[in-house]
Amino acid sequence: MALEIKQSLKLSQQLVMTPQLQQAIKLLQLNRMELVEVITQELMENPLLEEVAETIDNPEGLEAGSEEAAAQQNEPEAPAAEATTTETKDDVDWEQYIEDVNNNQSALPAVRLNTEELPSFENILTKTTTLNDHLRWQLSLAQMSEEERNFGELVIGNLNDEGYLIQPLEELAKEMQMELEDALEVLKMMQKFDPIGVCARDLQECLMVQAHFLQPRNEMVEKIIAHHLPDLERRNYQSIARALGIPMDEVIAATKVILELEPKPGRSFVASDNTQYITPDIYVYKVGNEYVIMLNEDGMPKLRVSGYYKNVLSGAKQPGQSDGEKKSGAITKEYIQDKLRSAVWLIRSIHNRQKTIYKVTESIVKHQRDFFEKGVGFLKPMILKDVAADIGMHESTVSRVTTNKFVHTPVGIFELKYFFNSGISAADGGGDVASEAVKEKIRLMLSKEDATKPLSDQRIVELLKAENIDIARRTVAKYRDMLGILSSSKRKKVF
Description:
single chain; Arc Repressor Mutant, subunit A; 4-stranded mixed beta sheet; two-stranded antiparallel sheet; extended
């Protein structure tokens, strides 16, 4: 068998992800607060980076090489301005001001100034009582044996935030090596703890426990909870009236009592402040007939390369240095050069990031001008490709820029991803309508509907078709679920 050697020339193209490119991509997808954290971390790790002071009165706050600023400070008008400021300060009669303050102190109420006697702020703060703490306190006061108390602790540890027992009672009894009947008795005792109905295993049991404590007892309420809760959920009051053989008025009266019961006993112990505050990355203002885009740089450190290390790097070699000093100097110089490259790339990447965000927002404003003028109902269909083609960038870049970034507009605060949505064909074959605009129309329709005669999904389809929007009923149902709106049968109000 003969061996044959062949030589060929192949041309290929390969993208190499350099550390600088990886850093630039990473910074693109960060929001403003995350970027501030990264910059702060880099300021601590890289000695060549320093934060520029924001005050213009401090000469050290000016960027290195700012010759114009230095020239302006040396202009003849500067002393005159300083003199004017001094004269303005001297216009205040400080001696008279201090005398007036001393004279007015007698009219003020006495204030204890000895701070040593005051308690610390840590002693003033109070701890929020949780549902578990509240139940354990009641459990410690209950007349139970040690075994029953230990089982009660286990039950409390298996409650969710709504106060329901999430583990089967059989498993808990087996874990504590306790008879099921005894475990059930302990559970019934704990269901009488405050709030009433806690430790229930399901909604029916929770409501039934609360119904037993009604004064006076209402047997009709207990019957409906025990046997007709699914019909009550579907608001099928006629079926309940037929099954119980009572008039509709009595069913409605009992339903009103049931609606006053608490289906989630533990909700009052859950922290109510779940508000998520959003800091916009971009602001869009309308000035005249034009929209002005401003990046939110409030609190974002302004970076520059330290002038001290630049002087060290560009310093001349000192004569008479030993070999060890030369070697140490070379290592120091290499370290400074490495940190310098890192600092320059970081500053450049931040600048490119801000520039890219501005260009993407500018393109969005251009494509969605009707939205900024009239609101959500006038949002147009738009995809990443439209903006990418407009600004001359790749779609992946636009996707990273619009991730987790919010813009403040005249009609509210929105995520940049909000403006990219699919289109729905018009009934007459005209221009498409954005899906978010259709959702807004559905929301407005349902907010104005008659509660006694709610709009069905099919009726919504007909109303949208009258507005030149062709949409299927299942799509309406999907959008309604996304808006968190119940079906027409569950929205209907009888009383």
